[in-house]
């Protein structure tokens, strides 16, 4: 049996620190649900081996991590046959695909980045592990344990971003020119890439398929099929997921009045904005802001 894992599921374990359904930090890989069975994570996972040895199979290929090794596991990969030495200490960073996409530059998606010249497994020398990565992990523990700090959520988000970019910088195979390694995209892929770029630049202000179809000079039906083919999700749902993600960040990380946010995201009225949030999050904007602080 293959267990599908997402950050919502991880948040049910008190030993795993989560920021909403976007980010998770497992201080030890052993607390991940069903890790010793067979899992398929719907998120980006980064394994950081600090001591000992960790073995697993990823998409039925063996992966061995020793102290100082980092492994980037792409979303929807299959992980099974996990085992470790007695002294193994491996932390795991988890990013929802929407969060990872939003952290990356507007012209790139997570899939596009990982399809470039990157080494999914690489080694970090001890001095750099001790001076950069481990202090950032220590800061994550501190701010997750100090939820009363005024800017704890903001700090946690930026530490995750720093770790992601530091790891991607280290993983990049600089001997491979990225533009030459990528095959020319199909017309469907090119359309989807243009759509994602527009979606990220728009940042949640427009939430209809028709708006993006008009910008891309295609029919709404054609764009909807392209989005469904590339994401497995309905077009409107995919657009709304990105909008909700942006709105959640504003509610959680800023003190902007709710009415101001309704204007920012171009809702016709405050009541429509509140209804949109209640539909997607199950609570009002005020309730979400209060519980997420």
How would you explain this protein's 3D organization?
- This protein has 293 residues and is an alpha+beta fold.
- It has two domains: 3-171, Jelly Rolls (Sandwich); 187-292, Arc Repressor Mutant, subunit A (Orthogonal Bundle).
- It is built from 13 helices and eleven strands.
- The protein has a six-stranded antiparallel beta sheet with strand order 2-3-10-5-8-11.
- It is globular.
- The two termini are 37 Å apart.
- Residues 178-182 have low confidence and may be disordered.
Helices and strands in order:
Elements: E1 3-5, H1 7-10, E2 16-19, E3 23-26, E4 38-41, E5 44-51, E6 53-58, E7 61-66, E8 69-73, E9 79-84, E10 89-95, H2 97-103, H3 110-114, E11 121-123, H4 126-144, H5 152-171, H6 178-181, H7 187-202, H8 209-216, H9 220-231, H10 235-253, H11 258-264, H12 270-281, H13 285-292
Parallel strand pairs: 1-4
Antiparallel strand pairs: 2-3, 3-10, 4-9, 5-8, 5-10, 6-7, 6-9, 8-11
Largest sheet: 6 strands, antiparallel
State the domain count.
Answer: 2
Count of DSSP-assigned helices: 13
Stretches where pLDDT falls below 50 for ≥5 residues? 178-182
Strand content: 15-25%
Top CATH class of the largest domain? Mainly Beta
CATH topology-level name of the largest domain: Jelly Rolls
Q: What is the terminal-to-terminal distance?
A: 37 Å
Order of helices and strands: EHEEEEEEEEEHHEHHHHHHHHHH
Count the E strands: 11
**CATH homologous superfamily identity of the largest domain:** Jelly Rolls
The quaternary structure here is single chain
Secondary-structure content class? alpha+beta
The helical percent reads 40-55%
Rg calc: 20 Å
What shape does the CA trace take? globular
Mean pLDDT across every amino acid position: 88
Spatial ordering of strands, largest sheet: 2-3-10-5-8-11
CATH architecture of the largest domain: Sandwich
């Amino acid at each position: 049996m293959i267990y599908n894992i997402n950050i919502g599921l991880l948040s049910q374990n008190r030993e795993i620190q989560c920021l909403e359904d976007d980010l998770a930090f497992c201080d030890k890989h052993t607390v991940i649900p069903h890790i010793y069975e067979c899992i398929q994570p719907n998120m980006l996972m980064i394994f950081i081996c600090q001591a000992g040895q960790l073995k697993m199979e990823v998409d039925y290929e063996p992966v061995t991590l020793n102290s100082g090794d980092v492994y980037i596991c792409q979303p929807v990969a299959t992980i099974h046959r996990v085992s470790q030495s007695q002294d193994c200490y491996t932390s795991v960073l988890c990013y929802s695909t929407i969060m990872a996409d939003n952290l990356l530059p507007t012209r790139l998606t997570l899939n596009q980045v990982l399809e470039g010249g990157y080494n999914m497994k690489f080694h970090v020398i001890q001095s750099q592990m001790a001076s950069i990565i481990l202090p950032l992990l220590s800061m994550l523990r501190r701010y997750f344990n100090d939820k009363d700090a005024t800017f704890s959520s903001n700090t946690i988000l930026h530490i995750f971003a720093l770790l992601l970019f530091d790891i991607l910088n280290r993983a990049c195979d600089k001997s491979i020119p990225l533009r030459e390694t990528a095959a020319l995209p199909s017309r469907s892929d090119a359309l989807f890439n243009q759509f994602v770029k527009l979606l990220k630049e728009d940042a949640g202000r427009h939430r209809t398929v028709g708006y993006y179809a008009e910008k891309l000079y295609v029919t709404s039906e054609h764009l909807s099929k392209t989005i469904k083919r590339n994401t497995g999700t309905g077009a409107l749902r995919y657009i709304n997921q990105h909008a909700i993600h942006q709105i959640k960040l504003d509610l959680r990380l800023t003190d902007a009045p709710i009415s101001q946010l309704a204007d920012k995201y171009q809702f016709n009225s405050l009541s429509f904005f509140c209804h949109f949030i209640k539909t997607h999050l199950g609570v009002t904007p005020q309730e979400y802001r209060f519980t997420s602080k």
